[in-house]
Amino acid sequence: MFSFPRSPKLPTGFSLKFEEQPSAQALNRLLSKSNSETYSPKKLALALDNSSYNLSILEEDTLKLCGFVRITTDQGLNANLWDLVALPGEHQQIFLSVLINQSLFIIRRDFPGCSVSVAAPSIAIKVLEDEGFIIDPGGIRTMALRL
Description:
147 residues; five-stranded mixed sheet; 4 helices; alpha+beta
């Protein structure tokens, strides 16, 4: 059986939330600060509502969104990680690692047997490889179409 590495600890003053969905505006702010693509608030709110899970890292004192990933799945064969993002700075790699590790834990627990794909920024590649992801397995490449 494949086992996942132990989840890294968040720095003091930050917490991981599974139940609290961020606002589309807060997520777009984080995406923008991370030089990631932003979305229309209406479409992003719809995507958040229709995700299986939304994981957020919040700064405890200010409740500022510092990291995020959402999980979608067909509950059979496929699970996907979307909008993986962490605030640039000294904790960025730790935030990404916690989000990926906890997402994989949830998928393994709730959707065993699903293959997992992730749309991720280049800053996350090392963390993904550390978690067992293979970049372009068997030469498989993904494509995207902006609607």
